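Listing S7. Sequence submitted for prediction.
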Amino acid sequence: MNNLFPGLAGNPKAAYLATAVFAVAMILLPLLVGIAGDGWVRMLDFALLYIMLALGLNIVVGYAGLLDLGYVAFYAVGAYLYALLNSPHLSENFEWFRMMFPDGLHTAFWIIVPLCATLAATFGILLGYPVLRLRGDYLAIVTLGFGEIVRIFLNNLNAPYNITAGPQGIGGIDPITIAGQPLSKSFEILGFTFHSVQLYYYLFLVLAILVIIVSIRLQKSRIGRAWMAIREDETAAKAMGINVRNLKLMAFAMGASFGGISGAMFASFQGFVSPESFILMESVIIVSMVVLGGMGHVPGVILGAILLYAIPEVLRYVAGPTQQAIFGFEVVPPEALRMLLFGVAMVLMMLYRPEGLWPAPKHGAKTSPGGKPVPAVTGPTKA
């Protein structure tokens, strides 16, 4: 309980009560939002996906201090692996595969998720190893190039052998099935009917909570403290005996694995993947979520992911009708308005809140049971 509500560390009963209230609210949220339509529940689903993506990138950028602008590549790796192993694409394009699996290879959820995480982590190591000595702008440029290379490969691997179907994408992807219940179909229990978007919401919620717990545990572990030492001063970290190379590779691998899981969930939820879903702008948005919320701070990253995804999506629904009601016509297209506000928010953040909306506590600061920060060093200071 202390991990989820650090401000209630001195009051276990209040922490358990807060956890229970939070759990009930999260369970009821899609049912209440669903009254307005499944489109709003779908927004909740994607918000949870972006939370997982942002927390994965937070390990690389926030904990280890490695600026990665190609994070969407790991998202794409997980999505395409799920698509290839849970669609008729390979059977339709490869005779030898059709002879082995006439009905296609429909991989179980419990197998495909670890596979996607493992493959994405492998790609993370492949990216991390050549860039171990790069920092700052140089690292950002190389990782940006890596993300574009993966997207271009996916866009062109349709000849001479049709592996990814190129720009056409892969369709007919199987939904996730749990206990014999495909999440693409409605499910009725005790007189309540849960639609597909609601079932996916609960699955994504469970995965997001697991990712949050792992992120918090990593932050408080020796590995997390070593990452932060590397972020603050790599030379000093080496002098302290920290294996900088292995820890950087571990950060790339761990962050990439979260991206791979998110990609698998995206493919199963959409039922279709194509290279257009993994453009550079996606990486920029995920990085912005981490920076906006507060690098290295799990609650801040969650807040940044929710705000940067939910607010533009809400504008998609309300900007047009609001302008029609006020002016009688659409002054600014909703898509342009979304990007305008996104840019303005980023500029204002860098000017007035450069550490993010909810920055991580300062090093050396402690938290009292009441949740108030207590300085680690007290006494007179120089003016």
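Caption to Listing S7: primary sequence and predicted structure tokens for the chain studied. The beta strands are 170-171, 177-178, 181-182, 187-189, 192-194, 272-273, 366-367, 373-374. The radius of gyration is 22 Å.
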